[in-house]
């Protein structure tokens, strides 16, 4: 197995950090609304794990794709995107079907990496 590139690790840590911050905020909102319970926490953990894992796997795919020929890189990226979308669908499906996950608390964290990417130029000047 190849060594994980430092940039992939750095950006995944960034996504993890922002996801953690937004997860705490989301937990606070559920608490303030009087809707918090352990199922919210479990759903949040499940969704956040899926979101960060998806980003990390995307980073690994890009790391591997840059060493390949253009056609092979495109195929790898396409396959990875399909597999990661399937993974997110399964994570969301498990969150919907199993009673110990709050549905919204599973789905909302899946959006946190998108917000983190949007905020990246504002929060990081490197």
Descriptive account of the structure:
α1 packs antiparallel against α2, α1 packs across α5 (112-123) and α2 (38-65) packs antiparallel against α3. Helices cover 79% and strands 0% of the residues. The chain is globular, with a radius of gyration of 16 Å. The chain has helices spanning 6-32, 38-65, 70-97, 103-107, 112-123. The longest helix is centred in the middle third of the chain and has 28 residues, at 38-65. The chain has 126 residues and is mostly helical. The protein has one domain. It is built from five helices and no strands.
Features:
mainly alpha, 5 helices
Q: What is the residue-averaged pLDDT?
A: 95
| Number of continuous helical runs | 5
N-to-C SSE string, H for helix and E for strand: HHHHH
Percentage of residues in DSSP E strands:
under 5%
What would a concise description of this structure say?
The chain has 126 residues and is mostly helical.
Question: What's the helix and strand layout?
Answer:
Layout lengths: L5 H27 L5 H28 L4 H28 L5 H5 L4 H12 L3
């Amino acid at each position: 197995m190849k060594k994980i590139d430092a940039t992939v690790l750095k950006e995944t840590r960034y996504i993890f950090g922002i996801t953690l911050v937004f997860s705490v905020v989301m937990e606070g909102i559920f608490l303030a609304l009087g809707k918090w319970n352990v199922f919210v926490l479990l759903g949040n953990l499940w969704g956040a794990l899926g979101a960060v894992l998806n980003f990390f796997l995307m980073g690994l795919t890009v790391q591997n794709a840059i060493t390949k020929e253009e056609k092979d890189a495109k195929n790898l990226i396409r396959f990875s995107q399909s597999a990661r979308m399937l993974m997110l669908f399964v994570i969301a499906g498990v969150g919907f079907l199993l009673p110990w996950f709050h549905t919204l608390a599973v789905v909302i964290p899946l959006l946190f990496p998108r917000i983190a990417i949007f905020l990246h130029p504002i929060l990081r000047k490197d």
